[in-house]
Every structure is written in C-alpha cells, then in structure tokens.
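Question:
Write out your own:
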Amino acid sequence: MKIPLFVMFTLLLSIVFTPMVFAHEPDFEGKTSEDILKLCNFFNEEYLLIGSEKFKDHHKLFLNAKICPILYENIAWDSKHPQKDLVLISEIEKELSKNANYLKEKHVGEPSSIPKWFKNKANLWIGWEIKDIEFLKAIEEVTNSNLINKSEQNLIPEWFKQTTKWYIDETISEKEFLNSITYLIKLY
C-alpha cells in the first residue's frame, strides 16, 4: 500500500510546522513572590484548558510554576478584592517556605526568622481583614505550637494586636516581637 507522495509531504509539513498549542514562555524570571504571581497569571488560561496534572507535567522546567495550581484553587484567585494579590503572595511565600524547608532549618528565636508570609498575615490581622483564628493558625505554623486546642475562645488578647502593629511598623525589634509570641504561647 503506497501512500501518495503528496499526502506524506503534507503530513510531514503539518507535523514539523504546527506550533505546539502552548509553546509560549514568559519573558521574565519567576524569582520573587510577585514574579511567581505574574507567572501564574501568565499560565492561568492554559491551566484552565488542560487541567492540573497535565499542567504540572507540561511545566516541569518552571519549578515555581508548581505553586500555580495551589493558587488557582485558592478562594482569592477569582476574587475582585483589592487585597487579592497580597493574599496570593502570602500563599506563595508560605509554599516557598515549605519547599525550602525553611521552618525546619531555622527556629523562631533566631534573627530574621519570621517568614515574609507570616508578616503579611500579621498585617492582614491587625487591619481586621482576617479573624483571630486564622492568625492563630499562622502562629501555630511558625512556632510549631498548639494554641487553638488550648484556647476555648481562640481570642487573641488586645495587647498582642498592639504589639504586632508595633512590629509591623518597626517600632519594636523582631526579637521583642518573638518574645511577645513566646509569652502569648505561655498564656495559652
């Protein structure tokens, strides 16, 4: 069975010159949290078309693109809220911290040991944008403590909110803030 030369030539040309459906790459590096958010925005349409597993498989070379499916599933992704990017960047930094094994390598009492995602959560909390329970979960994660089960009401004292504000405003040092976290844990 012979295939006409024309058919073979057409088939060969269509294979060679047909561009891949998603043969695009971003023209920026995904090094900072903001860049990773930009990267996820860049790949969002593709993710919606091919799904999570194919997306992960397709972008093995973009290590930080592995964070994108986590962001796409976050409730904030489709939000129109002005703080949307701040929440998503907080999630990116949380994932980067996990990936780098950050919390296991450093302890909360060492200098510069408070992750950026935690600072962002603290900022949201002092601005009344997240509830006490969500901030308690963040404290638990950073300190490897169990505050929520110890507290019946899961309310954080008002003095700690003021201390957190001072830390965010750089009125007190990181060490002083860490001491207040240690004291808060002892209270619970």
